Give the backbone structure.
Amino acid sequence: QEQLVESGGGLVHPGGSLRLSCTASGFTFNSYGMSWHRQAPGKERELVAAISYGGGSLRYADSVKGRFTISRDNAKNTVYLQMNSLKPEDTAVYYCARGYQTYDLWGQGTQLTVSS
């Protein structure tokens, strides 16, 4: 069974940092690009960052460039999203997805709340 499971969400103060993890199972992880997306209340889901299957190509939303870093550990079947200098507008449910430009498998999401 193909599956993505996110973890690491929570409540963070503005300016703080957090790392999200997404562990994959049921498919050959190192053959796929991976991505993080988010959806804030009342807004559409948007791409946050994506990483190619080997990690050599990266994409970021303009709103997170310089603050967020996507990475992957193919030995652990895991993709990460390191988030620094968090802002209240980063508050959203964060989803992991399989794919670099198109996405065909989604995790259940993890909530990030940035608030003082």
Notes: DSSP finds no helices and eleven strands in the chain. The CA atoms of residues 85 and 104 lie 30 Å apart. The first strand starts at residue 3 and ends at 7.
